[in-house]
Design a protein that fits this description.
This protein has 533 residues and is an alpha/beta fold. The chain contains 15 helices and 23 strands. It has helices at residues 42-59, 64-80, 82-93, 97-120, 170-178, 191-207, 224-231, 244-256, 277-296, 315-330, 339-353, 384-388, 411-419, 432-437, 439-445; strands at residues 7-9, 12-14, 17-22, 37-39, 127-129, 143-149, 153-156, 182-185, 215-218, 237-241, 263-266, 272-275, 308-312, 334-335, 359-363, 374-375, 378-383, 401-407, 423-429, 449-454, 493-499, 520-522, 525-527. Strand 1 (7-9) and strand 2 (12-14) form a beta hairpin. Helix 2 (64-80) packs antiparallel against helix 4.
Length: 533
């Protein structure tokens, strides 16, 4: 399929600013790919959001069954074009066929999961307090509430997930499921993948005769287009996956609006892994191998990459370091996603290695080739005092590097946890005896992290009902929400309450007859029963 490099504005492909073209780059060869992409104009951004606002008025009123059918068609259209999308995604990202096929499977499954969710319907959290006209000293009114869509959502895709957190990634899918139109700011490192995937979205929109404003895709290498989208008064929410710097820029832009809107930004974290003494004694080999696999998965380009190891000094810890060093020494450096990520990783590693309190304990046996954007695999080491006094060590290092913080005594493990910043994950490797002795560690970590992993590793996030992929700032902009999993739909809805509303005027989910047979909370009791006046 030949690409054209245009912008999708409310369902129509349009030429952008011819004076500001750009091309994607093959990260392995450094060669520019053929298609020239055109940055969107401010007018196109304004039109995309304005038309999304108009589309919202009808899209939000589609029944759950209609929206579910649209999502299922979208899954089918992406699946039909999967081979072409995967081939181009590899050219733009060098992620490899195996990794991309796994990501494509998740991408296809997400719309189907959300279709099941909204077709069943209980997710809207319908609550009904029946009136008590005879209550003293004042009557109780009838109150009914449920979650309703916010409005147009701007989605800023991730560079490291060109499929599952991009054009038809979680953000877009759960916004559609909620009844919100979407404006995607295409990631400039894989614009061709974005264009091919957007074609599948258009096909599904046309099949269901939805307004063109339901979906737009805008290109841009700089921040100008993104800022134009964010400033538009009709925009209702923002979803972002990327760096702390990028997330903060969007948060600040939203706060500067006349009417601030929520920003749901996932900004990465250090994801500490705590190695408790008995687990290290009993399971050193499996922990070392598991850590190495987690560190190097996706070339370290995961927001859940284990960036820090925390362990108490012991001979067994020395053996663990030796084993990890052996595995790293045999590993071959791999190409990173694009020049910006490679530069950021190289700068972070240079800063960490330049710290006088840091030792290099292991590095790739083969030197990386900068021309191929290869990343050296590293295990560094420091102590708690130097860690605590060195801000550059406590920043996310996006790539295959981790630092061991070697502790002198057991109580320092609690000191580390008490002083750490918000994180997406924290991992505990411990026997039952370890976990009993260090029970306070879990207590300290609970308000500091979104997901605590036991005797495993944090890379890889299951898309499920209990999933929480979030955490306190700076891991995310709001730790109360998840950006992955079924509950991510709650980012783009808010409750509306109807007081003493006639039954004929109520949303279907709140009517006395409960025609959708969803679970509702009536006077505090969960039930599917009909309400009899």
């Amino acid at each position: 399929m030949k690409l054209h490099g245009k912008n999708l504005v409310a369902g129509q492909w349009e030429t952008g600013r011819m004076g500001l073209p750009f091309q994607a780059t093959n990260p392995v060869s450094g060669e520019k790919l053929e298609t020239v992409f055109q940055e969107a104009t401010k007018k196109q951004a304004d039109t995309a959001v304005t038309q999304a606002g108009k589309a919202f008025q009808s899209f939000r009123l589609k029944s759950p069954g209609e929206r579910a059918a649209f999502l299922e068609t979208l899954a089918e259209t992406v699946e039909e074009q999967a081979d072409a999308i995967l081939a181009y995604a590899h050219l733009e990202t060098a992620l490899g066929e195996e990794r991309l096929r796994m990501e494509m499977l998740r991408t296809i499954n997400q719309p189907r999961l959300f279709a099941e969710l909204i077709r069943e319907g209980s997710w809207v959290d319908a609550r009904i307090d029946l009136p008590e006209p005879g209550r003293k000293p004042v009557p109780r009114p009838g109150m009914r509430s449920m979650l309703q869509p916010l409005g147009p959502v701007a989605v800023f895709g991730a560079s490291n997930f060109p499929l599952a957190i991009s054009v038809v990634g979680t953000d877009t899918i759960c916004a559609f499921a909620a009844g919100c139109p979407v404006i995607v700011k295409a990631h400039p490192s894989h614009p061709g993948t974005c264009e091919l995937t957007a074609e599948a979205v258009i096909k599904a929109i046309k099949a269901h005769k939805l307004p063109g404003g339901t979906f737009s895709l805008l290109h841009g290498k700089n921040h100008e287009i993104g800022q134009s989208i964010v400033r538009h008064p009709d925009l209702a929410a923002i979803a972002f996956t990327g760096s702390l710097k990028g997330g903060r820029a969007l948060m600040d832009a939203s706060a500067a609006r006349e009417r601030p809107i929520p920003v749901f930004a996932e900004m990465g974290s250090i994801n500490p892994v705590f190695l408790l003494p008995e687990a290290l004694r009993d399971n050193m080999e499996s922990i070392a191998e598991g850590f190495f696999r987690s560190l190097t998965m996706g070339n370290g380009q995961f927001c859940t990459n284990p960036g820090v190891l925390v362990a108490i000094d012991s001979p067994k810890l020395d053996t663990f370091v030796e084993r990890v060093a052996e595995l790293i020494g045999k590993a071959t450096p791999k190409t990173m996603l694009h020049t910006g990520i490679h530069q950021g990783y190289s700068q972070a590693v240079h800063s960490m290695c330049g710290n006088p309190g840091v030792r290099i304990r292991a590095r790739s046996g083969v030197a990386p080739d900068p021309a191929r954007l290869e990343a050296e695999i590293l295990l560094l080491e420091t102590n708690l005092e130097n860690w605590s006094n060195s801000p550059q060590l406590r920043q996310e290092c996006f790539g295959p590097a981790s630092i061991l913080v070697r502790l002198n005594e057991p109580d320092e493990i609690h000191q580390f946890a008490n002083n750490m910043e918000g994180s997406l994950t924290a991992t505990l490797h411990g026997t039952p005896a370890d976990l009993e002795v260090f029970h306070r560690l879990q207590v300290l970590l609970e308000p500091k992290t979104g997901r605590i992993v036991y005797n495993g590793f944090p890379t890889g996030v299951e898309v499920g009902y209990a999933t929480h992929h979030g955490g306190p700032y700076p891991a995310t902009s709001t730790g109360a929400h998840t950006s992955i999993g079924i509950d991510s739909i709650h980012r783009f809805v808010a409750p509306t309450c109807y007081q003493d509303c006639p039954d004929a005027q109520l949303p279907t989910e709140l009517k006395d007859a409960n025609p959708l047979r969803i679970l509702r909370k009536v006077n505090g009791r969960t039930t599917k029963e009909t309400i009899h006046p």
